[in-house]
Protein: Related to putative acetyl-coenzyme A transporter
Organism: Pseudozyma antarctica
Amino acid sequence: MGAAKGTKKSLANGAGDDVKLRQRPTAAMANGTPSSEAVETSDLLATRHASIAEADIETKDAKQGGEEEASGFMDLSPRDQRAMILLVVLYLLQGVPVGLAFGTMPFLLKTKLSYGDIGFFMLCTYPYSLKLFWSPIVDSTFVNELQLPLIGKLSLGRRKSWIVPIQTIVGVMFWYLSRNVDQLLLADLPNVKLITLIFFVLILFAATQDIAVDGWALTLLSQENLSYASTAQTVGLNSGYFLSFTVFLAFNSVEFSNKYFRSAPLDYPLLSLSAYMRFWAVGFIVVTSWLLFFQKEDEEADNAPDMDVKKVYSIMWRICQLKHVQTFILIHFVAKIGFQANEAVTGLKLVEKGFGKEDLALAVLIDFPFQLIFGYLAARWSKGDKALQPWVVAFFFRLGFAVLSMAIVHGMPSAPIGAGYFFVVIASTVAGSFASTVQFVGISAFHTQIADPLIGGTYMTLLNTVSNLGGTWPRYFVLKAVDLFTVSSCQPPSSALLLKDAEIAKLWATASKGIGGNECTSDLGKAACSAAGGECYIERDGYYWTSTLCVVVGTALLVTFIIPACRKLQALPPSAWRVNLQSHPKSQ
């Protein structure tokens, strides 16, 4: 992507005059001199024409010389292998807070909160889907080097300028939380607003790091192996996510720890949340230190075009005005409605009905190595000019698994879970993960193919943002809908004699007022109802109503809109996804 021009400055300690972030002026020059915007536009066009010409030459040379995309990791050049490893590690770190927010915390909070409260907590994940709004700042503001006392000059660059401080802050936050998080969760009624705010900040930093890493991937890997960026993202992000979700959730379970790792049962898990966060606090600091001192980022070329914040926002706006980009954004916005209830509620519903968290975590833990294998296979399947085809095929399977999940929840035995039912849960988890991974890698490969390298970070972030937003915005409403459609009540004791005791009568009067359709579905509400001498009865389970509605809407959208639109989009040449930097914005 285009680099910034101008004198390179170091950040000297205490030297305010030398502190200059790499942003470019946009005001017109005096005395009739062409405006900087015109010069910048000319530079951008020249760069694009040169890059297109170089790409054509490289394509011809590749065809003549036999240079093709590597068929596997071992076939990559040593440079690309090192780049792949670096990207996997960075995406893994990004997946750690994401896995906690998207996966683990809802399960930990479900014991004391309703589905509606968990829906409120899920608002903390929105920065991951709204990072588009500050991605141009990340893409255009940076320093090439940093001067520190005693240490000396440190090399940074367009991406490390953001990755290094962000990972440092996240590491410090993890260390602080490791000393206080247990107090937040052990409260009788957790402060869901405070917990949401804390994880909102963590996800905000993770989203910003994602912008920088996405852009860096386009320059770290060679042109012919750019599709492996989506593989690195899949492996790294999934690894961090599942370590923070399934692996942690399993080892955080007292039952799992006693059942599989202890000869004599104890009343505490093998791994607490505080210990887990302390481990990753150290991990973030170690990786960031290595990145700062040993990983060099190529400096921005002096002859590259200017890319200030205003210009990046302007180009991003022009991209969004392209008709096919608008169609693609709309696809992303509605694509995940069909299986949203399955992803957001099924696991929680299984636990609510008595399926052990440790057994559910074990099921997903078994699925973890399959995720890595599926990511590699999906990357091979998504090569070529029809990257959206596997994405569409996997769409049907994910809708089918949403229906299957409802049957699995409905057919859950009341007796202790047997091996047969456990196997069904594992099989459905693995199969669902395969379809999900195929979609993720397929759409990521398509993003890489159509992204303009000139503004790589912003273009990729635009595409990834709308993709993430499609899975984030419905979740709050889905969880609220489960509570809305659920009809349950706390019924009084069968015998009136149980109400004669004054204390029990007082408890019942209090409980019967506050325990209704929502609260009687939470563990805390059930406990209050039980303490009052009553029993919770679910007359209508909102999970089935909500999931069925999602599947019906998703199927209709797939057949009538998504499939026809995808056929048209993947037939477009890469040039159709570029904007004309010389003309005024037009709908194209």
Summary: The longest strand covers residues 143-148. Confidence is low (pLDDT under 50) at residues 1-66, 511-518, 584-588.
